[in-house]
Amino acid sequence: MNHDILKQVIFDQIEVIQNAEIIPRDYFFEKNVNYVLVGLRRSGKSTLLYKIARELVAEGCDWSQIIYVNFEDDRLLGFTKEDFNDVVETAYELSDVKNIYFFFDEIQIIDGWEHFARRMADQKKHVYITGSNAKMLSSEMARVLGGRYIPKMIMPFSLSEALDFQKIAHDEAALLTTAKAAKIKRACQEYIAGGGLPDALLLKNKREYIKSVYEKVLLGDIIEREQVKNKMALRLMVKKIAETVMHEISFNTLSGNIKATGIKTSTDSMIDYTSHAENAYLIFRTRNYVSKFAEKESTPRFYFYDNGILSLFLVDKPSALLENAVGICLKRKYEDGVYYFKSNQTGIDIDFYIPEEGMAVQVAYALGDAQERETKSLVSLAQKTEEVKRLVIVTSEEERTIEEDGYAIEVIPVHKFLLS
C-alpha cells in the first residue's frame, strides 16, 4: 500500500478528530487496554474513539502518536490483510516514539483482520478497533484474539445521553419542576418516535437520514457482507418483524407470511436472515424464560436496536414504539439477561422478565381497561415464583402504585423508567 496515501488518510482523519463535537457517553475505558467496539452503524463508535484520542493528547501525547485509519475511506479500496504492515511502517515514519496508539475503524471490512489484531496485541501495541458486525465477538474470533481485547457493545443514545446532547437537565430537581419536567417528557416522546442515532438528533428531517442508515445496514452490512441472494425476502422479513414487535413469531410463520406475497423463501432462510440482521445490530431477540430449549430458539420476540429505524415501518403504533424503547433500555443494562415470560398453562404473559434482578415488566401505553390484564399476569408470576421481587408497569404518562393481593405494582411513566 502506498505510504503517501496512508499518510494522507491519517492526517485528514486527525483533522476530523480535532474538529469533531464530542458527545458525552455513558461508557468507561481503562487506560492502556485494547478494545473492540461493536454496534449498529452510526451509533457513535467512531466518536468514542475520537474522545479517547483527544484525551490521550490532552494527557501529553503528540498527534503524531495517533494513527487513525477508517477502512471505509474510498482511498483504501483494495486494501487487504497483506497491507496492514504498511500501516505500522507508516506510523513509525510519522513518529519515532515508542508509544503509538492505533485506531482502526470498521476493520471488519478487511478479511483476516483478526490475525493482524492478534499480532499487534502480542507486540504490546495500543489498539482500539470498531466494527459493525457481531461476528467480531464470535467464539472463533475470541479464539484468534485470545482474550487480548475487551469487547464493548456501543448502542445508540440512551434517553439520558440524548437529553445531555440537547442540554436538557434531567436530574431529580428538573424532574420535580413543572416546566423542566414538561421539556423532558416532550424530548422523551421525540426520542421514542425518532430513536437515538446521534447524528439524527441534529436534523429536522430525521426520517430521511435514518432511512439512509437503514439502507446502508441492509445493503452493506447484511446483503453484501453475507452475500444474500433473495433481497426481497430479506426486506419483507424485516418489515414483518417490525409489524410484530411486542409478539413472538416463529420462523415458520415468517416464512409463510413472505410466501403469501408470492416471494419464494424457506424457514431455514428466515433463520439465516434473522441471524444476519442480529449480527448487523439491526434487531435483537428475547426468548421465553419458561420454554424448552427448542421453543426458546424457534419462537423469539424481536426488537430493534433503534426506535427511529423501527418507526420507518410503523404507522400510528405508539404502543409498539413504547415497548421497543423499554426493550432497548433493558438490553443496554442486562444484555442477554432479558426474557419474556409466557405460559399457556397458567395464562401468564409478561413482556420482559429479568431473572437476575427478580424484576417483571409490563408495558402499556395507557392502563384504562387493560389494568386488570396487566396486573393479573404480574401478580400470578409473583405468586408462583419466589424470585420475583419487583413488579413494574411502564406507561406513557401514568405514575402510581397499585396494591393487588398483597403485592405492590409500580406504575412508572416511560421517561422516568428510561432515566432510572
Automatic annotation (TrEMBL):
One Pfam entry for this protein is DUF4143
* Residues annotated as domain AAA: 35-162
Q: What is this protein called?
A: Uncharacterized protein
Record-linked InterPro entries = AAA_14, DUF4143, P-loop_NTPase
Residues folding into a coiled coil are none
Q: Where's the DUF4143 domain?
A: 221-360
